[in-house]
Design a protein that fits this description.
With 512 residues, the chain is an alpha/beta fold. It contains 16 helices and 20 strands. The strands form five sheets. It has a seven-stranded mixed beta sheet. It has a six-stranded mixed beta sheet with strand order 2-1-20-6-17-16. Strands 3-4-5 form a three-stranded antiparallel beta sheet. Helix 10 runs antiparallel to helix 11 and helix 11 packs antiparallel against helix 12. It is globular, with a radius of gyration of 24 Å.
């Protein structure tokens, strides 16, 4: 584990929910109905990780995909029927499986690994259900302040790993008038859980006497919106209550469909290829070339998802030809913009969208949400900024609910108390993209403080270039690198303590 070490590594892991190792995407907060947004072979492309997971799926198949266990809904039942043959054969690679199964696998694998390492005397691991709200330095140690269900406490750490997930979603201030409007506003569909908010939504809509007023507005058109639509439409009770969905987002489009087992196309992104053959170009010009190639492919009725690899290959070729300053601009700004033209999702999710559109049960509005608006006739609509004309507009039909699925906050404007304190105490610093913390190629934000997960996005250090870090495959790869760094830099530490009167030291992994 660590050459020459004579005592176990002391590890404290904090998690504000009662569920360790899954995070929000793969645990109870996302429920059992949510699916992977990419096929398994893309979700975990690395071996032997995918092989381990597939072995576990095969060993637990009968239990995991039992209809009663799956809390059968109309879409879950269809998924089980449509994929029955692949499930029986163990053909997992092209399936968009219920993602909570990966959470169950993670819990099993981590618990077994920790138990084995503990039995060998390699580690001592304390799991604490707590919310970390402040961290400060005290000489060579970190003082970590936590809130548990029972009390506030503090412990100390010699090394700190911040694996706190994504920044909070963009929030919209609710006035007293908004709160009294009677409209159901859900700011985060996963807090406390998607299932709990689905129950809350049904209860609120059931109290609206006029069915025409039971319209649900969803802010954003990203993966969370697809999760929400799929989960709602998996419930007959919910779908019977909803008159119509209104999706309000700057693009008013959903990701492109990932088709299963599609033959490779003979495709060339001509604008990109021509660009990278020129003597000099910029990161912005790469973005403009992607726009032209995507527009050209769309005009030819080519599914962008089917040519994702062809475009990405040339984009990376162009990135490697840029000078250092332009590579930095690519990472800080333009890569994310390019990604917006290549968003992809599975057919099961997009089938729900298409069905709703065909039945005139879903309407798109292109704009940015501003806030609720009381209507003269009663109830509440909303105001939004029109994307095309940049003018403020009014949605003047009564809404029964608004669900916020907007993107993540700028870390410099974060509502997270922990993020605010980390920046104020200069333990972490925002990177130039403001999507995450500034780190070096060893994930170090400051001395003995490391970052893992979505907050590493927006960093460049030589060939270490990360502009997106929300996918499981990316985090798996980066985590291996961080583990090697921690092992090489680890020093003996003392026993962790809670509510210390005498400072102790520990390695902290915060999985908030």
């Amino acid at each position: 584990f660590i050459a020459g070490r004579t005592q176990p590594v002391k590890i404290v892991v904090t998690e504000k929910s009662s569920e360790f190792w899954t995070g929000i995407p793969y645990g109870d907060r996302s429920g059992r109905t949510a699916l992977l947004i990419s096929p398994l072979k893309e979700f975990i492309p690395q071996q032997p990780e995918r092989a381990h997971f597939i072995d576990w799926l095969n060993a637990n198949r009968d239990r995991l995909f039992d209809r009663q266990y799956q809390q059968q809904g109309q879409l879950t039942s269809k998924w089980l029927d449509d994929n029955a043959a692949d499930l029986a054969r163990g053909d997992w690679d092209d399936l968009f499986i219920p993602r909570h199964t990966f959470g169950l696998y993670l819990k099993s694998r981590l618990n077994e690994t920790i138990a084995a390492a503990t039995a060998k005397g390699l580690i001592e691991c304390d799991l604490i259900t707590a919310d970390v709200w402040d961290i400060q330095r005290d000489g060579e140690l970190f003082l970590v302040d936590i809130t548990t269900a029972a009390d506030c406490a503090r412990f100390t750490a010699k090394q700190l790993v911040l694996a706190i997930g994504s920044p909070p979603n963009l929030g919209f201030e609710q006035t007293t008038e908004d709160a009294n409007s009677g409209l159901c506003y859900i700011d985060n569909m996963y807090e406390p859980s998607l299932d709990a908010n689905l129950d809350r939504l049904c209860q609120a809509l059931a109290e609206i006497p006029n069915p025409a007023d039971r319209q649900v507005m969803i802010i954003g058109s990203n993966a969370s919106t697809l999760d929400t639509l799929y989960s709602i439409n998996n419930s007959l009770a919910a779908t019977s209550l909803i008159e119509k969905f209104i999706v309000l987002s700057p693009t008013a489009t959903f990701p492109h469909r990932i088709n299963r087992k599609v033959p490779a196309l003979d495709y060339t992104p001509h604008a990109l290829v021509a660009l990278v053959q020129t003597e000099s170009f910029t990161s912005q010009q790469i973005l403009e070339a992607v726009k032209r190639d995507v527009a050209d492919a769309t005009a030819q009725n080519i599914n962008i998802s089917d040519i994702y690899g062809d475009i990405t290959k040339v984009v990376m070729q162009g990135l490697n030809l840029l000078d250092d300053a332009e590579q930095a601009q690519f990472v800080f700004r333009y890569a994310v913009e390019i990604g917006k033209f290549q968003r992809r999702a599975g057919g099961e999710y997009l089938d729900v969208v298409n069905d709703l559109v065909d039945r005139c049960k879903l309407e798109f509005i292109k704009g940015r949400f501003i806030g609720q608006l009381p209507l003269p006739t009663g109830g509440a609509g909303c105001e939004y900024l029109d994307s095309e004309h940049r003018q403020q507009q009014t949605f003047d039909r009564p809404l029964g609910a608004i669900i916020n699925c907007a993107g993540f906050q700028d870390v410099t404007k974060s509502s997270s108390t922990l993020i605010q304190n980390l920046l104020a105490r200069e333990i972490c610093f925002p990177n130039q993209s403001h999507r995450g913390f500034a780190i070096d190629k060893n994930f170090k934000a400051s001395e003995n403080c490391y970052v893992m997960g979505p907050l590493v996005a927006g960093n460049i250090d030589g060939t270490f270039r990360i502009w997106h870090a929300e996918s499981c495959q990316r985090i798996l790869g980066l985590s291996k690198h961080l583990a090697e760094v921690l092992l090489s830099e680890s020093t003996p530490v003392a026993t962790p303590a809670i509510e210390v009167s005498e400072p102790a030291t520990a390695t902290l992994v915060s999985t908030i």
